Amino acid sequence: MFPRTLIKEFQSILGKENVFANEADLVTYSYDAAVLDPVVPGVVLRSQTGEALGKVVKLCNENGIPLTVRGTGTNLSGGTIPLPEGAVVLTNGMNRILEINEQDMYAVVQPGVITAKLAGSVEAKGLFYPPDPGSQTVSTLGGNVAENAGGLRGLKYGVTRDYVMGLQFFDVNGDLVKTGSRTVKCATGYNLTGLMVGSEGTLGVFNEIILKLIPLPASQKAMVAVFNEMDRASETVAAIIASHIVPATLEFMDNFTIRAVEDFSHVGLPTDAAALLLVEVDGHPVQVDEEAQKVKDICRKMGATSIRVAKDAEERDKVWEARRSALSALAKLKPTLVLEDATVPRSKIPEMVRAIQDIAKEYDISIGTFGHAGDGNLHPTILTDRRNEKEWERVESAIAAIFDKALGLGGTLSGEHGTGIAKSCFLEKETGRATIVYSQRIKAALDPNNILNPGKIIGTGPV
Description:
alpha+beta, single chain
């Protein structure tokens, strides 16, 4: 039972309506989108101001209460699963866009702002915020920064870290730390902004975020290329990149995923295709026409059986809406879905696609593969039922095999989903022991009582 005296102190800071300690509320915040066991916290706290947030962090530290910050819980690596009797701190009460500066092209937001809300707000002013995680209609910008979220446009425009100009965050003592600036260049002090991006709430608690904006592309052209062989589709990805064309998006879908998506969205995808590439180029209209033609030529040369170009914005939006529905479509097929994001150098995409097929056969499991093939980031999606113990053992072995193959090809464990709990046990394979120890020393120095999202990324080992 969480101490009543502490609940009263939190209520005095946040108001009674923002402190939740009944069982139903606690269970709601015991899990995220990862396939991991839930953990029921001791209390859930909702801050509506930065001042109150700092006080909450300080009170947790003084009383040794593990603190896990939570946006909307869409993350896929267990980053927002709390500790028993710990505190979950919700950011959805801090959801204001504080500034959109059109002249200097930046925005200042609170961490609870929904990603798509910012994107729509800046687009209305002729500006562009490119990071577009699949969960953008519900995910928060604080969570995006904490996980270094990516998305479909990562190939051309990069990921969240490429747009974070500065931060205000509370350290473990509740003191406000400021890093970065509103300027294009900033070389002042340590790069604490870079340290905080992707830190998954283990080093500080965000209060405000400064994000870079860019001009909205003048023109876009989207197309769907159909292939009757998976190898031809994956090799086309490498060929497009090798030709020094950088599409805004270059997405891959295998037949398993195509059929699931078409059944879910009914947009007219060819369900007999072995694989599809969904490609969009953007920029100046003349450049768009030239690059689109080059992409079509490459696709034909590599064996595409047909290429369909979206005739207008409505058809283009339907294509991307279908792609974004891939996860939801696959999730309907079996009780348990495991979405991975092992990432390899782009030239290794064909080999990685073949390896995923081989792993599915070896372990006798269903894997649908789609993802951001243009930046090497595939999403092998395992469909299973966790209640089937023997099958789940094969699934866990298959996940390890996927990671081993990605690392063997010079890749990484995660392109955009973070490390959290789900991948922390594999981290040493990629980074080496010295890197983990170095990271643990940083954590110990900044959070000596180990209350900031303990156990995530680097585990809880000695330093």
